[in-house]
Hints:
Blueprint: E1 7-11, E2 20-27, E3 33-38, H1 42-59, E4 65-72, H2 76-90, E5 117-122, E6 139-143, H3 153-166, E7 173-177, H4 183-191, E8 198-201, H5 207-224, E9 231-236, H6 239-243, H7 245-249, E10 257-260, H8 262-269, H9 281-294, E11 297-299, H10 309-322, E12 327-329, H11 333-342, H12 346-364, E13 370-372, E14 375-377, H13 379-394
Parallel strand pairs: 3-4, 5-6, 5-12, 6-7, 7-8, 8-9, 9-10, 10-11
Antiparallel strand pairs: 1-2, 2-4, 13-14
Helix pairs in contact: 1-2, 2-3, 4-5, 10-11, 12-13
Amino acid sequence: MEKQNKQISVGNLGPKVRSDCMVNFELANTGGIQINLISKVTPLYGDTIKSLCLKQLEFHNIENAILNIEDKGALDFVISARLEYAIKQLTNSDKDFLLDIIEENKSHSSKEKFRFSRLYLPGNTPSMMLNAGIHKPNGIILDLEDAVALEKKEEARYLVRNALRNVDFYGAERMVRINQLPLGIEDLKFIVPHHVNLILIPKCESADQIHQVEIEINRIKAAENLNYPIYYMPIIESALGVEKSFEIATATENVVSMAIGLEDFTADLGVRRTKEGNESFYARTRIVNACKAAGIQPIDSVFSDIADMEALAENVKTSKSLGFEGMGCIHPRQIAVIHENFAPEKTEIEKATNIILAFDEAKSKGLGVVSLGTKMIDAPVVKRAEKTINLAIKLGILDENWKKIELKI
Length: 409
């Protein structure tokens, strides 16, 4: 059962660390199980923590070990993730110790779900995961890529796996950004069986990369007898990716949105990223055009200055005017500004209302031609108006009985 190494330390520790722990795990030849816990909550929860650890050690058939835990307020899913990673490093155990998944995290997503905002959270920092959902982002990204140090990536997989099962994200779409391929393929077995809604594929440069991910996802789903949908959001971060954006957008029906990552893209061009964004105008419009042609959502890059809300609002308005339907967030304070500025404006809603009412009236009269003032209304115009109205209802700007009441704006 044992591997060559006898001792390992896992987790995070330091004066600013919260909701985490440091686990030092050592296999022994005799002496049974010895657990030493340092925690401010020992009087209240010490027995519960030790019981969880004993149960996990028994699950992995470990009879002799020394376990030292320095706790900084870690919840069960964190302690369990840290301990399991340690166990897997020192033994040949191939079993997964999983806490019961909460009902909220069994929900599925849909292709048409609004994705105005997606909040990035480092995949190895549990303190940022716990209350992220209360800020009401459309999606929460547990990030295994850039936000996790190379030496921490493997242990982060266990934490992200457990978070997908045990953290209440308050209805936000559960997303994971995997590592750049081929490393990202190994991430999939930690997230696919645990009700992830959407997977972000970074630094994507070809449809073949999407196919690689989908082949592995289908293999895992077949092996685990899973039947829930998992969608993809490729991230375009290079000149080559931009040029192949339509190929990527149409790689599979499970690609529901495509984002651009401007930090890496501008680095690839060898230019500096500016607030005005002139250096990325071509790439952004190319991404939008590819997405609209493919019938998926174009998603803009993150705005990196978390202190400048006015500049963020202007950036969102520009993004919306280019055709983007959402963007990334790196701080919760950005969410409300993004939602407010991506939401339909009063004039948009009034125009959409008039179009749909005129279309309904024409249909009731059996007319094949619909006009509003001097302009003809065709099917794409009506469809766009319906999308605006549906979005306004979703955001609470309009009541579902909007045709019978005044606009609430």
